[in-house]
Design brief:
By secondary structure, this protein is an alpha+beta fold. It contains 9 helices and 24 strands. Helices cover about 25% and strands about 35% of the residues. The model has no long low-confidence stretch (mean pLDDT about 90).
Length: about 425
């Protein structure tokens, strides 16, 4: 089996400014092109060099050639959102996406992974941690490509929400992408091309795990991961489609196996209000810098955290993010929790409306200008006057959805002497490492 080619969506804009460093061939005309370029959407065409196209493909004519995209948004809708110029190897593809241009990088899987490992984590992380991440990133990517092919062969679209007058239960997955396999941001996997400097150890890691994936019954595992599980990992179906995955289950992130039933409100509240021992319960900066890039390190409290809103802030925020006017917010009540204590259905009670939202990412987006660190939180109401709280305190646990590998926990495991196979066995029980190509 040859190394698969992946199509990565980088940005979506009305105008795309880029520089071709080295010689490229524009496949639509056969012309050789280099230097500064500009493409924009106009009259349902791509306007490029005063001509209209439906697609543009810029293929490098030399292995050292690369293209530079200007003002790429990273951390979209997260608290670290910003723009930066980024460089990429491989083919540059520009296609029409409604009233915008979708910019896509076509690249082989292993080159893609070299960037992902350096973008998701520090390229200076321990080798066993990087090897574990290479295997799960490769597994997740190939699983998404397979799923994309299956969805294209089906006549009906993938369902990703349930909605009626009382509730909206929605989850966000890579089925949102139809023009490419995966995006370049945290919605899928961070991919920042050759902008994030790789190191010899990252290239060694890719070579030593070349073609290795996690599998179960010879099927590629949908190997999810997040920054910090908060002490217990979450089951897949509480965050995405209601289809259980036997290798994505609730696990204590420590040497101990036992933990309370965090789907029960009293147990979840006790768990979140304390800080139980776990691999990911650390403030060791030397460990954290292996997992957290510079902008991630702006986040200091992630194992346990607090967010405070006054009434006016919270009611305005929920109206802005949900489009529903609840009036003044009376209460936020967990309807159900997942196995890590993350809320997967939350009842919002206001003076004008009561409504249930879920799943975890919908909750995190609704209760923050960007994203709450996680949906594993308990609510304290303060300054209550005539039944209306003047202030809400959210006390939470973890960073991200908590499914699969916990990056900070895995970093601690590697420092403690666990090898990458042991790390993967801990976070994906029952899955095996298989070499696919």
């Amino acid at each position: 089996m040859k190394t698969p080619i992946v199509n990565v969506g980088i940005m979506n804009e009305t105008t795309v400014s880029f520089i071709l460093h080295g010689n490229y061939q524009l496949l639509e005309t056969g012309a050789e092109i280099t230097g500064e370029q500009l493409a924009e959407i106009q009259n349902e065409h791509i306007l490029y060099q005063e001509k209209g196209y439906q697609e543009l493909h810029f293929k490098p004519l030399h292995p050292d050639s690369f293209f530079e995209l200007k003002s790429v948004t990273i951390g979209l809708k997260f608290h670290w959102q910003r723009k930066e110029d980024q460089c990429f190897s491989g083919t540059l593809r520009i296609v029409i996406d409604g009233e915008h241009l979708a910019v896509i990088n076509q690249i082989d899987t292993e080159s893609y992974l070299t960037s992902v490992i350096s973008s998701e984590m520090s390229a200076h992380a321990s080798k066993e941690l990087l090897k574990a991440h290479a295997v799960i990133s490769r597994s997740w990517l190939l699983a998404q490509i397979e799923k994309n092919q299956q969805l294209k062969s089906q006549e009906k679209s993938q369902q990703s929400y349930f909605q009626d007058e009382k509730q909206l239960i929605r989850w966000y997955d890579r089925e949102d992408h139809t023009l490419f396999d995966v995006c370049a941001d945290d919605h899928c996997q961070r991919y920042q091309g050759i902008t994030r400097a790789s190191t010899p150890i990252v290239r060694e890691v890719i070579q030593e795990t070349w073609g290795e994936i996690l599998s179960e019954n010879h099927c590629i595992c949908d190997a999810r991961f997040s920054k910090c599980c908060g002490g217990v990992t979450e089951q897949f179906e509480y965050c995405w489609e209601p289809v259980p995955h036997s290798y994505l289950i609730a696990l204590r992130d420590s040497k101990e196996n036992s933990f309370p039933d965090l789907t029960q409100e009293k147990e979840a509240e006790k768990w979140i209000r304390t800080a139980p021992e776990a691999f990911c319960n650390t403030q060791d900066k030397g460990i954290l810098c292996q997992v957290l890039n510079n902008y991630d390190q702006e986040t200091t409290d992630f194992y346990r955290w607090k967010v405070t809103y006054i009434q006016e802030e919270l009611s305005a925020l929920i109206y802005k993010k949900s489009g529903i006017d609840f009036g003044r917010i009376i209460d936020l009540i967990p309807v159900s929790r997942g196995t890590s204590g993350r809320i997967d259905q939350l009842k919002i009670i206001g003076t004008q409306r009561t409504y249930i939202i879920g799943k975890e990412l919908e909750i995190r987006r609704t209760l923050s200008e960007s994203h709450l660190y996680s949906s594993a939180f308990v609510v304290e109401k303060e300054d209550i006057q005539e039944g209306i709280p003047g202030r809400f305190l959210l006390i939470g646990a973890g960073w991200g959805h908590g499914v699969g590998l916990c990056q900070i926990g895995a970093a601690m495991m590697s420092t403690a002497g666990y090898n990458y196979r042991q790390i993967l066995s801990h976070y994906y029980p029952g899955a095996i490492i298989e070499k696919r190509y």
